[in-house]
Specification:
The chain has eight helices and three strands; from the N terminus they run H-H-E-E-E-H-H-H-H-H-H. By secondary structure, it is mainly alpha-helical. Strand 2 and strand 3 form a beta hairpin. Helix 1 packs across helix 3, helix 1 crosses helix 4 and helix 5 packs across helix 7. The chain is globular, with a radius of gyration of 16 Å.
Length: 152
């Protein structure tokens, strides 16, 4: 599986990011510290990447733009085949489907799981979704975070 497919799939499965958002990510949304820690900012809050995803991202960042048609200086995290453009969503989606992963259903399952584990205000901030959407997912997962909100 290609690095961009693996990373895109993990961003979708772990952080419930839509493939369209993933493909449009800029390289500056990824930060690698001197000690090798990797953070990704999907909306406003940087999220520390777990092992081995952090290594895969570093490898991708080092290999980005090695193809003759893509520029290493591209602002896109996933440069496309046409100079200046990002990778098409279908590139990642098609490869995930070929590996038995259904992106739409998988992202919804990830949102469901995250909504059951993370308070809605934090979920909304981390994932870049509205608070209303986070509340709806929490309700679907039978988790009520009202007590947390009142204490915050």
């Amino acid at each position: 599986m290609r690095h961009y497919t693996r990373i895109g799939g993990l961003f979708m499965l772990l952080f419930a990011q839509p493939l369209t958002t993933i493909c449009r990510m800029h390289a500056d949304q990824v930060t690698v510290t001197d000690d090798g820690q990797v953070t990704v900012t999907f909306e406003r809050t940087p999220i520390l990447m777990p092992e081995p995803l952090d290594r895969i991202i570093i490898e991708h960042m080092n290999r980005r733009g090695q193809a003759s048609y893509a520029s290493r200086n591209s602002r896109w995290l996933f440069p496309g085949g046409i100079p200046g453009n990002h990778l098409a969503t279908e590139n990642i989606r098609g490869q995930l489907v070929d590996h038995g992963i259904k992106p739409y259903n998988s992202r919804k399952a990830a949102l469901f799981q995250l909504a059951a584990e993370i308070p809605t205000p934090i979920l909304a901030e981390l994932l870049g979704i509205s608070t209303t959407t986070a509340v709806r997912w929490a309700e679907l997962s039978s988790r009520n975070w009202n007590a947390y909100i009142a204490q915050r």
